Amino acid sequence: MSYKKTKLIPGNRQSVEVQEAFVKEYDKLKESAEKGEIHLLFFDPTHQVHNTINGTCWQTKGKRGTVIVPSNTGRKRISVLGAVNAITGSCTTIITENNCDKDMVIATFNEIKKEYSDDKEIVIILDNAPYNHSYKTIEEASLLGIRLIFLPTYSPNLNLIERLWKFLKKIVLKNKYYKTFLEFKKAIETFFENIQIYSHNILKLLNSKFEILKEE
User: Fold this and answer.
1) Which of 60, 130, 170, 214 lies most in the core, judged by the most C-beta atoms within 10 Å?
2) DSSP 3-state assignment of 48?
3) Residues 114 and 92 sit within 8 Å (Cβ to Cβ)
């Protein structure tokens, strides 16, 4: 036995069969994208609060808390609506101080269409948030030539962009103190403006090794 932090997983997770069925469908879509027949993206928003996130780092052995990082008391946050290309690792984003809603999702879809302006079908895999399922969102996606594929419910483990958000926190937020909200926002904006620096890391993250959450 060892004393370690617990791991959180969705309590209402889908069955193994449903998760594996999605992975099979994804493999077919990925093959089509690799052949250049479609553009394949994963979409999701992330909300980051202006505060320090504790992370691991090298510290003096035998002492606890030798590295101290300041924190903020504010709760101001920004939203990043992003779509990552499952094949190339490129990322389309909108960064805003507003909350995510159907209008913001549609705005992101329009940015995606600008980036992928050829005649190939755009396929976006996304979760089941209400704003993703709204009639207005689905109608606008259809007008833009975007096909929406919804993940099995309660399955963040199957959404590849969750790995990008985790990487963002590691690079920009963990053990990093930003005194002002403007500095905090600029750091996140700079990450995405220069995301090609991390292209090798991101492509490694976007592998097809999905974690299938087992039933108890």
Assistant:
1) 170
2) strand
3) no
